[in-house]
Specification:
The protein contains 14 helices and 10 strands. By secondary structure, it is an alpha+beta fold. A 4-stranded antiparallel beta sheet has the order 3-6-7-8, covered by helices on one side. Strands 1-2 form a two-stranded antiparallel ribbon. The chain has a two-stranded antiparallel sheet with strand order 4-5. This is Peptidoglycan hydrolase.
Length: 379
């Protein structure tokens, strides 16, 4: 637009060299300058979080450097470590922003008028003039200040509701921060959630400072064992409690499983347990089903049966339909030794569909503690 107006002015013989003598030319130049400033101001004022690009390699270095303080603050205040890390990554540009480098301010915390008496640093953000930001002696001090900022009783009307959420509910925290006006970016919550899920930061919410020193195998035992709801028959008198190898994992862990000869439902599909000494032919005969169909329904090509495993008597579904409305039911947290087939069989989902929702695991097994989506995610 600016170029078009300048070109038009030139074509009409408004010579810039004679602008002092030409009042009309002066007015046009003032209008053009005003238009330019109006277009340039948003670029100067846009916060770092509006330019959403995160280098994963740099982000992982950042996580290793600051995850201890994030988890320690979660222990102390209840603010999810995943949220704190994601905000630090987003607000500071993985620690590379001017504010992070010069002021050790990783969360964009402003001076707040007369509240702040320490050193200050001025940078452009989302205002038409430079804004005043707090300077900290270290990044860790900034992490602590971020907690105190959210915990400030004077700001309870804005952020107080967040502390009623579970510390594992990172989506609720992300949306709550945006709703409360923590940042002006309209995509702030989506950006936080994207960072948390892409980098697996939600795993930090299940840890403590002491657990951060554990080995990878020791950490794998900490993550919660998630499983679908199983609709058992209340009048069942055939149940027996048996200690067996975990049927939904390749790890030789022993678990107590209540086996029943009755049919039950998983994900709205009729299913039965594999009993000790069972093979597919016995199961088909017991429940009057065709063995070929059971073989196909349960995707058993190249796979054997395990005692305690579910055998579905009908086709598995395309996704997991939880009876509750909890958003956490849309994901499964992987335990040690679990394959994508184990998870598909645990929730009554077709393996092909599960891999479609989680394409990264088509060629490699998921690691303990990562999230596996049980249905298509909304964008």
């Amino acid at each position: 637009m600016l170029w078009c107006l300048l070109r038009a002015a030139k074509e009409r013989s408004f010579l810039l060299l004679n602008y002092k003598k030409d009042k009309n030319m002066q007015r046009i130049l003032l209008i053009l300058i005003g238009l330019f400033l109006l277009q340039a101001t948003p670029l100067l004022a846009s916060p770092w979080s509006d330019y959403f690009f995160i280098d994963d390699i740099k982000a992982r270095f950042y996580i290793e450097k600051y995850k201890h303080i994030a988890v320690a603050e979660m222990d102390r205040t209840g603010i999810p470590a995943s949220i704190k890390m994601a905000q630090g990554i987003l607000e500071s540009g993985v620690g590379e922003s001017e504010l992070a480098n010069v002021a050790n301010n990783h969360f964009g915390i402003k001076c707040g008028g007369e509240v702040w008496t320490g050193e200050s640093h001025y940078v452009w953000d989302d205002e038409v003039v430079k804004s005043c930001f707090r300077v900290y002696e270290s990044a860790e001090e900034s992490y602590i200040a971020h907690s105190e900022f959210l915990l400030n009783p004077k700001k309870a009307f804005r952020y107080g509701v967040l502390f009623e959420l579970e510390k594992h509910d990172y989506k609720g925290w992300a949306k709550g921060l945006q709703k409360s006006g923590y940042a002006t970016s309209k995509t702030y919550s989506k950006n936080l959630i994207s960072i948390i899920e892409r980098l697996g930061l939600y795993k930090l919410d299940y840890l403590t400072v002491k657990q951060l020193a554990l080995t990878e195998n020791e950490l794998a035992n900490i993550f919660p064992k998630t499983a679908p709801e199983v609709d058992l028959n209340a009048a069942d008198t055939t149940t027996t409690t048996t200690r067996i190898q975990d049927p939904f994992s390749s790890v030789l862990d022993s678990v107590d499983v209540i086996l029943t000869l009755y049919q039950f439902q998983v994900n709205g599909i009729d299913a039965v347990y594999v009993q000790p000494g069972d093979d597919l032919d016995k199961i088909a005969d017991r429940y009057r089903k065709k063995m070929k169909k059971l073989y196909a329904y349960n995707e058993l090509k190249g796979r054997g049966l395990k005692v305690g495993q579910y055998i579905f008597l009908d086709k598995k579904r395309s996704c997991y339909e939880h009876s509750s409305t909890q958003k956490s039911s849309n994901v499964h947290i992987v335990n040690r030794g679990q394959t994508m087939y184990d998870i598909a069989q645990l929730y009554g989902i077709k393996l092909k569909k599960l891999l479609k929702y989680n394409p990264v695991y088509r060629q490699q097994p998921p690691s303990p503690g990562v999230q596996v989506f049980l249905k298509k995610q909304k964008r």
